[in-house]
Amino acid sequence: MRILVVNDDGVKSPHLETIVKVASRYGLVYVAAPIEHQSATSHAITISNRIEVDENVFIPNSEKTIAVGGFPADCVRLGVALFEHNFDLVISGLNEGLNISTDVLYSGTVAAAREANILGLPALAISTDRGYNPNIENYVAMVLDEVIGNKLYEKYKLLNANIPRVEQIKGIKYTHQGMRLYHAEFTKIPDSNDYKITYSLMIYDEGPDADSTKLDEDYIVITPLSIDQTNYEELKSLKK
Q1: pLDDT tens digits for 49-74?
Q2: CA-based nearest residue to 33, from 75, 77, 91
Q3: d(CA 70, CA 233)
Q4: What is the CATH number of domain 2-179+207-230?
Q5: Where are the domains of the chain?
Q6: pLDDT score at 49
Q7: pLDDT tens digits for 95-154?
């Protein structure tokens, strides 16, 4: 099995070594990661006619690693093009910071997984809550055992997994995307053209099967996503 690992936290992220170490138990791992941190860049791509690639990078347990002067989606494109292998799976992560609910619209981690789908490859985005978690390697292994060990990636082409920061995980739950979001307020900074941004978490009553609900109950959550964002119910109504 050949696995391409990408991320949005950058090639120097310690979580990158964790995901590569665990993924290498399943096959040959290649890495394409941004040179700089690229969180919340969503599905941006480089549209100029050149892009920087550092091919002299070492990540333990990887067959080869490149660092890309671009966005997470660029990393998928460059990894597929430069490594010249037929990858069985693209793993995007391990992201430091959850990517649940509406986070998936802003996330570079999830966008890289979507880009893999656009290129015809199954993908898994995987994120964890911020802060130190001594059991994170074991929890990542739980996710990969579920997705790779059970060959879920052969049927479910775009999966988004999130790991809570708790000492004891209750298990894995399959969920739908929730609506939790971060509200932003902007306050003018005196004698400046700048505004201070203050974020607050807005939590909705989302029901028992939302990703945010099960995550708060100390479960790893896995949500199947899709590229097609068509609202088919409204489309059907418009065609009447």
Answers
A1: 999 999 999 999 999 999 999 999 99
A2: 75
A3: 37
A4: 3.40.1210.10
A5: 2-179+207-230
A6: 92
A7: 999 999 999 999 999 999 999 999 999 999 999 999 888 899 999 999 999 999 999 999
Output the 3-class SS for 16-65: HHHHHHHHCCCCEEEEEEECCCCCCCCCCCCCCCCCCEEEEECCCCCCEE
> In degrees to the nearest 10, what's the CA dihedral of 151, 15, 174, 150?
10
Q: Which tens digit of pLDDT belongs to each residue from 33-52?
A: 999 999 999 999 999 999 99
Residue 180 CA to residue 202 CA, distance in Å, equals 6
The Cα angle at residue 27 between residues 224 and 176, in degrees rounded to 5:
10
DSSP string, the chain: -EEEEE-SS-TT-HHHHHHHHHHTTTSEEEEEEESS--TT-TT----SS---EEEEE--TT-SEEEEESS-HHHHHHHHHHHH----SEEEEEEEES---TTHHHH-HHHHHHHHHHHTT--EEEEEE-SS--TTHHHHHHHHHIIIIITTGGGT--EEEEEE---SS---EEE-B----EEEEEEEEPTTSS-EEEEEEEE-----TTBHHHHHHTT-EEEEE--S----HHHHHHHT-
Q: The whole model's pTM is what?
A: 0.94
159-204 residue pLDDT tens: 999 999 998 999 999 999 998 888 899 999 999 999 999 988 877 7
